[in-house]
């Protein structure tokens, strides 16, 4: 076993939702491992600032991941003009909290489009090219909510459960074309998505007691899992959901 298995030199990685938070950390990490990185989000100003953090040679591909046609067109044009996307990290996502009995239908629909339709939209658009080349790595960002329910977050939990199952379906359907599709299920990380929870001391107290690691995760702690699943180091891993959660999912 050689450390070279983790080397991503010569690979190009598209990370959706990489203008901030987990996506930006993963983009930085993939670049450090040798990949050229393509950033995605909807806000070009945020993407430009993120590209400065990732560093030289970083490309931007702004589009809305909820729009199937826009994703297809952006990816087809990028592949034609700039070359192959070898690694796709489906990271873009959002969260709404609230009691299920009062949850607005439009918010439920928006969660579905952003958290699960996006994985289909971008996954299919990129996989069509990967299939033509007979290789490719897809890493979907799931959640501990893929396995566990928490109060007041049922619609998000539903979308992340679906991300886990779509990952297994992608792995099953596309292995014969040389693709590998896996997921990372993060625990609780301090990002803009969790701003309200981070600001709530009662939540942090609960989290510190409930998580065996006794703390919030740092986004950099997701990078190793992503490099592993994006690289030759995981050549026989397919349809797996890798929990990076300080142990919360396995402890009562
Ligand atoms: P953030 O809210 O910090 O970042 C979300 C990113 O997604 C932004 O770059 C945002 O950019 C982008 N995005 C949102 N909607 C769209 C869209 N329709 N099209 C394109 N880009 C979009 O979230 P996190 O970094 O915390 O989360 C990233 C992923 O990790 C999500 O899937 C989330 O569910 C998952 N996750 C997060 C956890 C955590 O503890 N933070 C735990 C478990 C899972 P812009 O708005 O500019 O378009």
Strands of the widest sheet, in order across it, are 3-2-1-4-5-6-7
Radius of gyration: 17 Å
| CATH T-level topology | Rossmann fold
Average predicted confidence as pLDDT: 97
**Strands, total number:** 7
Distance between the termini: 35 Å
Domain count: the total is: 1
Ligands present: NADPH dihydro-nicotinamide-adenine-dinucleotide phosphate
How would you portray this structure in words?
The protein is an alpha/beta fold. The protein has one domain (about 5-240): NAD(P)-binding Rossmann-like Domain (Rossmann fold, 3-Layer(aba) Sandwich). It is about 45% helix and about 15% strand. It is built from eight helices and seven strands. The protein has helices spanning about 20-30, 45-55, 70-80, 105-135, 155-175, 195-200, 200-210, 225-230; strands at about 10-15, 35-40, 60, 85-90, 135-140, 180-185, 240-245. The protein has a seven-stranded parallel β-sheet with strand order 3-2-1-4-5-6-7, sandwiched between helices. Helix 1 packs across helix 8, helix 3 packs parallel to helix 4 (about 105-135) and helix 4 (about 105-135) packs parallel to helix 5 (about 155-175). The longest helix has 29 residues, at about 105-135. It is globular. The chain starts with 11 loop residues before the first strand and ends in an 8-residue tail after the last strand. The mean pLDDT is about 95. NADPH dihydro-nicotinamide-adenine-dinucleotide phosphate (NDP) binds near residues 143 and 193.
């Amino acid at each position: 076993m050689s450390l070279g298995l983790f080397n991503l030199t010569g690979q190009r990685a598209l990370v959706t939702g990489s203008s901030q938070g987990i996506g930006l950390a993963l983009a930085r990490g993939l670049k450090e491992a040798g990949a050229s990185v393509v950033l995605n989000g909807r806000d070009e100003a945020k993407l430009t600032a993120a590209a400065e953090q990732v560093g030289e040679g970083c490309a931007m591909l702004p589009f809305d991941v909820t729009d199937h046609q826009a994703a297809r067109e952006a990816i087809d044009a990028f592949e034609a003009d700039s070359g192959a996307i070898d690694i796709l990290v489906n990271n873009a996502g959002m969260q709404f909290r609230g009691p299920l009995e009062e949850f607005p239908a439009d918010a439920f629909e928006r969660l579905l489009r952003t958290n699960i339709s996006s994985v289909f939209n971008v996954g299919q658009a990129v996989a069509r090219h990967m299939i033509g080349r007979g290789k490719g790595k897809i890493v979907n960002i799931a959640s501990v909510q893929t396995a566990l329910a928490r109060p007041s977050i049922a619609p998000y939990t539903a979308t992340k459960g679906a991300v886990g199952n779509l990952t297994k379906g992608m792995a099953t359907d596309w292995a014969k074309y040389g693709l590998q599709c896996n997921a990372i299920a993060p625990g609780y990380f301090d990002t803009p998505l969790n701003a309200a929870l981070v600001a709530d001391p009662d939540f942090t107290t609960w989290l510190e007691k409930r998580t065996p690691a006794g703390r919030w995760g740092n986004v950099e702690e997701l990078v190793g899992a992503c490099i592993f699943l994006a690289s030759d180091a995981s050549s026989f891993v397919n349809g797996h959901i890798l929990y990076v959660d300080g142990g919360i999912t396995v402890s009562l």
